[in-house]
Amino acid sequence: KRLVSGLSKTRANIVSGIDSIFSGFSSIDEDFYEEIEEILIMGDLGINATTSIIENLKKQVEEKRIKDPAECKKLLIDSIKQEMTVGNTEYEFENRKSVILVIGVNGVGKTTSVGKLAGKLKDQGKKVILAAADTFRAAAGEQLIQWANRAGVELIGGQPGADPASVVFDAVAAAKARNADILLCDTAGRLHNKKNLMEELRKIYRILEKEYPEAYLETLVVLDGTTGQNALAQARQFAEVAKVTGIILTKLDGTAKGGIAVAIHSELDIPVKYIGVGESIEDLEKFNAESFVNALFD
Ligand code: GDP
């Protein structure tokens, strides 16, 4: 339900166009494919994904000797789903001692997502410790305190400007002492200063390797879904400096650009693991390609 209403703008953007094609064409020809292609591109699915989806659709139409455009809808939906099943989509951190590093530039919804994720994992019965390792932005610490309270989890903080790696060091000690299941770290994301960011992440990775080698490590990048192709560019840049294992795509409730989720899978081979569909603590959903595409078309 939440997913369907959260994606309503994207749905309106893609579905109305697609439906008019299926009903407006009487035969399957190049124009028909071109119209579909245009809608997918307008829907922010990106050139790569769109090309491969159309190719797959054409192949299916030929193999199954389909003549009626209306029969192509299901094939199109299946082709989109297929395009999204890449990368490691397992939520391995849920089943063992884990550290989740969350990175992302200011304003994308990083702190909010960390808070929501803390609440979600706690609800699953996990012992969660939050680390406020984004010490660059003073307000982030304050905000995280509120989220920690809301989620009912312990927060390890640092003074504004403190070394993020030292916060992670303290947080690891706390996680071990309390026998926590998950250490969730709100980490920086100053992409405009790539060298510093790289250095900072390297230090954090080094501490985790040395102090907490038994923990499974997940690095999630938070991207703002309303920024469409920009989000994709950011993901690419983060993947250059960190061992990114998944993506949290936020603000899908406020945008018609939700198709970017397809582009991310297709272009980067990094799975979207969670999506944000609102501002409250329960508005973070595990991503599932099947239900995502169904919510857009059914
Ligand atoms: P940060 O600077 O990346 O830590 O971003 P914040 O977590 O402070 O979020 C920035 C703004 O985006 C806040 O007003 C959040 O409430 C809002 N926000 C975050 N995630 C979502 C979402 O999934 N949907 C909507 N509508 N707003 C969101």
Structure description:
There is one protein chain. By secondary structure, the protein is an alpha/beta fold. It contains 12 helices and 8 strands. The protein has helices at about 1-5, 10-25, 30-40, 45-65, 70-85, 110-125, 140-150, 165-175, 195-210, 230-240, 260-270, 290-295; strands spanning about 100-105, 130-135, 155, 180-185, 215-225, 245-250, 270-275, 285. The chain has an 8-stranded mixed sheet, sandwiched between helices. Strand 7 (about 270-275) and strand 8 (about 285) form a beta hairpin. The protein is elongated, with a radius of gyration of 21 Å. The chain starts with a helix and ends with a helix. Guanosine-5'-diphosphate binds next to helix 6 and helix 7.
Question: What secondary-structure arrangement, pairings included, does this model have?
Answer:
Layout: H1 2-6, H2 8-24, H3 30-42, H4 47-63, H5 72-84, E1 98-103, H6 110-123, E2 128-133, H7 138-151, E3 154-156, H8 164-177, E4 182-187, H9 194-211, E5 216-224, H10 229-241, E6 246-250, H11 260-268, E7 272-276, E8 284-286, H12 289-297
Parallel strand pairs: 1-4, 1-5, 2-3, 2-4, 5-6, 6-7
Antiparallel strand pairs: 7-8
Helix pairs in contact: 2-3, 3-4, 4-5, 4-11, 5-12, 6-7, 8-9, 10-11
This protein binds guanosine-5'-diphosphate.
Subcellular location: Cell membrane; Cytoplasm
Catalytic activity: GTP + H2O = GDP + phosphate + H(+)
EC number: 3.6.5.4
